[in-house]
Design goal:
The protein has 489 residues and is mainly alpha-helical. The chain has one domain. It is built from 16 helices and no strands. Helix 3 runs parallel beside helix 12 and helix 13 packs across helix 14. The protein is globular, with a radius of gyration of 25 Å.
Length: 489
């Protein structure tokens, strides 16, 4: 058989085909391992840096381990929590997945580093009595167990596609470790009761506000004869409301380290910025709308840019306020090891700890965020730029009211509740139109169920994950605390 023989080339083609198929199969099988591998590299780098700078201190190995788990927690928060801000923008097709990842990564990191939380809230908020776990070793293992339990639970929820509250995960972890360390009496049960109440309050508030804003947009803009003129009037006002809400939010919660602003001055700041933004946006919207057809598609274009800015602002605010969920227990461990006691009042989060949280949020979002972004943005109910902007505006307003009332609400619950609120309003509105026109009122039950605009299966998955977050993380944290104690005996 010679090289010129056709059989030789046929055999060679078959062999090359097999090799090519094997390479494709290898790439396909290895692709799911890329993101976990990069995450492990990030955690390893954090551990190496912590070992270089802190490994020589007494109990330095504990700090190094805590830094690695803090990085793991930040990765999971980035994967799960950040999707709530970017999901509506992606679902409304104002941003691609790639654009959302870049904007969220930049804004989350900037918010965490420039205006990040300055106090270790997981203990100082009164979940457990600090004096009940005053021993340094007991306290360190309690915080370590809380950190590990919260991170593991958020990881599981992300894998299942359920957006859960990272705040509640940390709260459950601290509570479980506190009970394991000092019994049920160590828990501040009124605080826990308020947190349980927030399971209902925060999504309900988010949903109601989102539905009200959508009703306003429909009646004042979408169903007007001259849609472009209505948009020129009201879109700047809605953008101004978002800017004012963001200013109030940051004044109350995000900039405490720089200046302590009360609710009254914060509202005045927000009102001034809202008016200024409205005046600035009027000529912008007027120029953007020139030559547009008087149709709904034009409105989607007018709402797209404000929606992108809203998502960016919410991401900045999330980075500023929720980064403490990732690194709060880590900062408490660092303080306990260095100071030799378990007191947490006035504990500053070191810059290197904040950096772990900030960059961990961004890395986790980029590696694992798209799954939850798609779920929040498109799999609960269909979103367009107008509906998505209502969700974002609802989230900002609800957080302000909750902060003013002192309610321990979750940004996750509010954002997802806003998506549900928009979906259920659309269902109600469509049903009202059908009844008014007497169209479809005699449809079979199966057909009416098929026309539902909110996917009930996703709703049940999300609600079940919300309800079991605190008890699940508490049980896991308590077990990990007991295990850590056994190992170190």
């Amino acid at each position: 058989m010679t090289e010129s023989d056709p059989k030789t080339w046929k055999t060679l083609d078959k062999d090359l085909g097999r090799i090519g198929a094997l390479e494709q199969a290898t790439q396909f099988a290895a692709r799911p391992l890329v993101a976990p591998g990069l995450a492990l590299i990030f955690m390893g780098l954090v551990g190496i840096i912590a070992a270089v700078f802190l490994g020589q201190q007494p109990l330095g190995f504990v700090v190094v381990a805590a830094a690695v788990f803090g990085a793991y927690m930040a990765l999971n928060i980035g994967a799960n929590d950040v999707a709530n801000n970017m999901g509506p923008a992606v679902g409304g097709r104002a941003l691609t997945i790639g654009g959302a990842l870049v904007i969220a990564a930049v804004c989350e990191t900037a918010g965490a580093l420039l205006a990040g939380g300055d106090v270790v809230g997981t203990v100082s908020r009164g979940i457990i009595a600090p004096e009940s776990v005053a021993g340094r070793q007991v306290f360190v293992w309690a915080m370590m167990a809380a950190l590990m339990a919260a991170a593991l639970w958020i990881n599981l929820a992300t894998w299942l596609g359920a957006p859960v509250s990272t705040t509640h995960s940390v709260v459950g972890g601290v509570m479980g470790a506190g009970i394991a360390a000092a019994g049920l009496a160590a828990v501040n049960w009124p605080t826990m009761a308020a947190i349980v109440a927030s399971w209902v309050i925060s999504p309900a508030m988010g949903g109601v506000f989102a539905a009200l804003f959508l009703a306003f947009v429909k009646t004042r803009v979408i169903y007007r004869d001259d849609k472009i003129a209505a948009a020129r009037t009201w879109v700047p006002v809605l953008v101004g409301i978002m800017a004012g809400a963001f200013a109030v939010y940051m004044a109350i919660k995000g900039l405490k380290r720089i200046v302590d602003v009360g609710i009254g001055p914060a509202l005045l700041i927000g009102l001034a910025l809202a008016i200024l933004t409205t005046l600035v946006m009027r000529p912008v919207i007027r120029r953007q709308s020139e030559g547009m057809e008087n149709r709904k598609r034009s409105l989607k274009a007018l709402f797209s840019i404000p929606l992108v800015f809203a998502a960016a602002l919410l991401s900045f605010a999330h980075g500023a306020n929720d980064v403490a969920n990732a690194v709060g227990p880590l900062a408490a461990i660092v303080h306990a090891v260095q100071a030799g006691d378990a007191t947490t009042s006035g504990v500053e989060i070191p810059l290197w700890v904040m950096a772990i949280g900030a960059f961990g949020l961004s890395v986790g979002l980029i590696l694992f965020g798209p799954k939850l972004i798609r779920m929040v943005g498109s799999e609960i109910t269909r979103l367009n730029p107008m509906r998505a902007y209502c969700v974002a505006l609802s989230a900002a307003i609800t957080v302000i009211i909750a902060s003013w009332l002192g309610l321990p609400v979750s940004s996750t619950h509010i954002a997802v509740g806003g998506v549900f609120g928009v979906g259920f309003f659309r269902e109600w509105y469509a049903e009202a139109i059908r009844k008014k026109n007497r169209n479809g009122s005699d449809l079979p039950v199966e057909e009416r169920a098929r026309r539902k605009l909110v996917r009930r299966s996703h709703m049940m998955t999300v609600m079940a994950a919300w309800v079991i977050t605190v008890p699940a993380t508490a049980l896991l944290s308590g077990g990990l605390f007991l295990l850590l104690n056994l190992i170190t005996l």
